Amino acid sequence: MNTNEDQKWQDLLLHSTPTFAGEAAPPYGFVTGTLARLRTETRQQEEFERIGWRALLASLAALVIAATVTLSMNYMDRGGDFEPGVRSLVQMENIQVS
Amino acid sequence: MDEAIDVDGCLQRWKKGDESAAEELIQHLYPVISKIVRTHLPRRDDEKDLVQEILMKTFSRLHQYKGDAPITHWVSRLALTTCLDRLRAQKIRPEVRRADLTPEESDVFDAAWLTGSSPDAGDAIAARDLVDKILASLSPEDRSLILMVDLEGRSLQEISETTGWSISKIKMRLFRVRPQLRQMIHKL
């Protein structure tokens, strides 16, 4: 029974074979349309890359500025009489130190 | 088939921005992709859009092509994966019943199964629709596997190269799907 059903399945596939055949050449306008889409996507890709590089450079610049400011403030604060924890306590409580 | 055009030359020219190279590649790859899309997707799915989508993927991933196998093999795999993704996205797997068949499909069914006679040549489309309906209840991978084996007569090795599945996985799938297919046909 299985063999019989398999054979009939093969017969059905055989009859539908012409509908599975691919086209030898693209239809009219297909290549032009595909090339236009390819051009657009390539342009978009380049644009995204450009934007990406700009964003990366801007982030790096911001990072360098932040690091410079932090380091310079740290350097300026180093000259006090107290340890950093004590100094902040003094500043917070506004204690008069003579 | 790859000898028909200078694929390496085309790729080099395309990398330098030569659009005529892209046109040559499209002309070269179109029949291969068209055949895969027509085989692995149901007849009414929008074929042209999908062929174009596969070509877009091909160009955007050309840098991944190593050149160790013909480009048609590489593109075939990409095309098949895209078709399977499309089938998975559809998700609907209706079980075909006799009442769902159109009169033409019923005629083809009766001719092929019940009387054992050959359907008319003009019934190819009805036969294809019937094949699509029967295969629609299988998973996308099983559907494609059955078509590669039964329709295209491909060897397990060839299927393995195209799909990336191991031979044992293919055998296991076939072993599982055959009774399923027979059962569906039997129910009709």
Largest interface: A-B, 32 and 44 residues
For the biggest sheet of chain A, the summary is: none
Described by the principal axes of the CA atoms, the overall outline of chain B is elongated
Compute the number of strand runs of chain B: 0
Radius of gyration of chain B: 19 Å
> Structural class of the helix and strand makeup of chain B?
mainly alpha
Spell out the helices and strands of chain A N to C. Answer: HHH
Helix content of chain B: 55-70%
Give the radius of gyration of chain A: 37 Å
Low-confidence regions of chain A: none
What is the ordering of alpha helices and beta strands of chain B? HHHHHHHHH
- How much beta of chain A, percentage-wise? under 5%
Commentary on this structure:
The complex is a heterodimer of chains A (98) and B (188). Chain A has 98 residues and is mainly alpha-helical. Chain A has 3 helices and no strands. The longest helix of chain A is centred in the middle third of the chain and has 48 residues, at 30-77. Chain B has helices at residues 7-15, 19-40, 47-60, 71-90, 103-114, 124-135, 140-151, 156-163, 167-187. In chain B, helix 1 packs across helix 2, helix 2 (19-40) packs across helix 4 (71-90) and helix 3 crosses helix 4. Chain B is mostly helical. Chain B has 9 helices and no strands. At the A-B interface, helix 1 and helix 2 of A face helix 2, helix 3, helix 5, helix 6 and helix 7 of B.
